[in-house]
Design brief:
The protein is of the alpha+beta class. It contains 17 helices and 12 strands. Strand 3 (about 90-105) and strand 4 (about 110-120) form a beta hairpin. The longest helix has about 45 residues, at about 20-65. The chain starts with a helix and ends with a helix.
Length: about 425
């Protein structure tokens, strides 16, 4: 496509020379602008992908893909029969009966609200999100009517550890002649979990199913089922199958998309807006290429005229200046790609290094829900960013190159 002569002249024009210093400065800033724009887009899109994937994985690891609730606030009686019907439905890997309620956890003069979930020890062992993140204690001790698992951050708030006792106060108290008295009982902490999501680590307590039924006064009852699917992409068809199998039962089905729709829709909108805003960086760099190439054409008018008189065609001149401008876009895009990929691969180390220098917390778990900064690069998105940067760079080069090819040698050499 480009002859050796055209490549030689084009790259010669890109070399900085003393008398063309200002043009070279513009070219350098154009290259840096494209490099930073591509790198920033790759980094931001990867972090937002990782943020979404981490949140989705941890939310589903605790809540399941589908929740089956009782229509009555009194809970689900005879839930074994309903559990059997749910298990007989296709695409279902795990069915967990749960007793859930709100409590106030207290120790000495400290108190914090929490959500208690009563689950069987075997079901917790099947949830890798919980079982693989027990940092203190053991799931083997999760038996009896007085043992609990507690989030590590909640334990930190209360100043307790494994082996200590915590008082749980239920808002549904005992009715006496003097009014309603809150129901309170002491429980022994047998383990602390840290799944890396602040909302859960600071507000969840797990209790054996039978103990939760006793504490919340739901004998032989549960509040809901949590259902995990083998293929989450087939959520809609699985919901329809469950509705058919559970027809006649007084139940309400809620999937994870319904319960978290506003949260993930907000993430998607923010992601799209950030993509549009950061694309402007590349667009500004492309305009810099236009200005730099226009000045280069103006400065090389005499050279263009000489080339034309020596036999160079309009097409050859246009290729020379197109190659000069396109080289800036290609080098900037490749540099940005390398910088963005390296940054994403080492993003947590970079965050820790900056925190150690500044002494500030750049990614607070209380605000962002996660204890580590995630980055998940999508090959398709990276390719799209690079193609977009190259396209804008090539388009920005066409007009100055066309103007160079239309330059009249006679007019250019008239006053030489």
């Amino acid at each position: 496509m480009f002859s050796p002569f055209e490549r030689m002249v084009a790259f010669r024009y890109l070399r900085p020379r003393r008398e063309e210093g200002f043009v070279s400065v513009i070219a350098i800033f154009s290259l840096l602008g494209i490099m930073l724009g591509v790198a920033t887009l790759i980094i931001v899109m990867s972090v937002m992908n990782g943020f979404r994937a981490e949140l989705l994985g941890r939310i589903l690891g605790l809540n399941g893909h589908i929740s089956v609730y009782a229509q009555s606030p009194d809970g689900l009686p005879d839930y074994e029969d309903i559990e059997r019907k749910i298990r007989e439905t296709g695409n279902i890997t795990l069915v967990t009966p749960v007793v859930e309620g709100q409590v106030m956890a207290t120790k000495d003069n400290r108190a914090s609200g929490a959500i208690v979930r009563g689950m069987r020890a075997s079901d917790i062992a099947g949830r890798a999100t919980i079982a693989d993140n027990i940092v203190f204690g053991s799931l083997d001790d999760f038996t009896g009517d007085d043992s609990i698992l507690m989030g590590a951050r909640l334990a930190m708030k209360l100043g307790v550890g494994v082996g200590d006792t915590v008082n749980l106060i239920s808002p549904k108290g005992n009715v006496t002649a003097f009014g309603t008295v809150p129901r309170m009982r002491a429980y022994r902490i047998v383990g602390l979990f840290d799944i890396g999501m602040y909302e859960y680590d600071s507000g969840f307590i797990f209790m054996p199913l039978e103990a939760a039924q006793t504490y919340f006064r739901l004998p032989e009852k549960i509040t809901h089922f949590e259902v995990m699917l083998e293929k989450p992409s087939e959520l809609a068809s699985s919901m329809n199958d469950l509705l058919r199998n559970l027809s006649g039962e007084s139940l309400r089905l809620v999937d994870w998309q319904q319960s978290n729709s506003s949260f993930f829709n907000a993430l998607q909108v923010e992601r799209n807006v950030m993509f549009l805003i950061l694309t402007l960086i590349i667009l500004v760099a492309a305009f810099n290429i236009i200005s730099g190439m226009v000045m280069l054409v103006k400065d090389k008018g005499r050279d263009i005229a000489i080339l034309r008189t020596m036999g160079a065609t309009r097409s050859s001149v246009m290729k020379i200046f197109f190659l000069s401008g396109a080289s800036i876009g290609v080098l900037g895009t490749l540099s940005g790609l390398i910088l963005g990929v390296l940054f994403c691969l080492n993003i947590e180390n970079i965050r820790q290094f900056i925190q150690s220098l500044t002494g500030t917390d750049l990614f607070s778990a209380e605000i962002y829900f996660l204890s580590q900064l995630p980055a998940d690069m999508d090959v398709g998105e990276v390719v799209m960013v690079c193609v977009m940067a190259l396209t804008l760079s090539f388009l920005a080069t066409i007009y100055p190159a066309w103007r160079a090819s239309r330059l009249d040698p006679v007019e250019a050499l008239r006053y030489e």
